[in-house]
Amino acid sequence: MPACVVTTVAHVTEFEDPPSPLTDGQVRESFRGPVRLRGDQREENSSTTDQRLLDSRGPSDWVHTDPWRVLRIQAEFVEGFGALAGLPRAVTVFGSARTRPGSKQYRLAEEIGAALAQEGFAVITGGGPGIMEAANKGAKQAGGMSVGLGIELPFEQGLNRYVDLGINFRYFFARKTMFVKYSQAYVCLPGGFGTLDELFEALTLVQTKKVTKFPVVLFGSGYWGGLVNWIRDSVAASGNISPPDLGLLHVTDDVDDMVRVVHDAYAAWEAAH
């Protein structure tokens, strides 16, 4: 039996019919996603979103545009919340990245990290060197959880080697949210602008009741005393803060006192919840 050759002729159907005449009261309109465009805003013969996505690769500049940054920011929050959601009660320790290993401040940060870990607190730092490394080291060696929340900077290395759970962030504000959300207290050792930034942001959040039962401990009266005196004698004396706001800061040189303040605040937070 001879082979049978079947030829199929495709019939092309246009999905978009030519525009029909307008009846009374009708106006021409087009859509861009959920947006309705009429009159001068209407786009004639514009390509669809799918077509622009699939037709060609196009330029790569779009990955640096603000809409794309919004997605990156969203991804940082999702990753941070996902990684830290199971974290036990925790305390964030701040301090200078420039503190040298073996120095008095470094050893003190190790002691603080160990003391917090022994009391059942995870220790969170910025994940870098100096005070941050020392606090992570103390927590890790004491058998506690050591957490580092790093930030993309042009002049600092990645996470220190004592971090067990680490996240690197592109955006400071996403990182700051994680510090506040997953900490029950801040302990600030001597540090620079970064430490001061976190300190005053925490004070603002506590003062405005955005966070509650959140102690801010300044460790090292010799270092912090001048700042506290200025806040009392200039800021409060000028009426720019209320006298009770001075009580938001606790200055100490004693590790046991620091642990007591953290415990008391956590107990008060538990009672309120």
In short:
This protein has 273 residues and is an alpha/beta fold. 41% of the residues lie in helices and 14% in strands. It is built from eight helices and nine strands.
Backbone shape: elongated
Ends: how far apart?
A: 86 Å
CATH architecture: 3-Layer(aba) Sandwich
Number of strands: 9
Strand order of the largest sheet: 6-5-4-3-7-8-9
The chain-level mean pLDDT equals: 85
Characterise this structure:
The protein has 273 residues and is an alpha/beta fold. It has a single domain, classed as 3-Layer(aba) Sandwich (Rossmann fold). Helix content is 41%, strand content 14%. The chain has eight helices and nine strands. The protein has helices at residues 49-55, 66-84, 104-118, 131-141, 172-181, 193-207, 221-236, 255-272; strands at 29-32, 35-38, 90-94, 122-125, 146-151, 165-169, 186-188, 216-219, 249-252. A seven-stranded parallel sheet has the order 6-5-4-3-7-8-9, sandwiched between helices. Strands 1-2 form a two-stranded antiparallel ribbon. α3 packs parallel to α4 (131-141). The termini are far apart. The model is unreliable at 1-17 (pLDDT under 50).
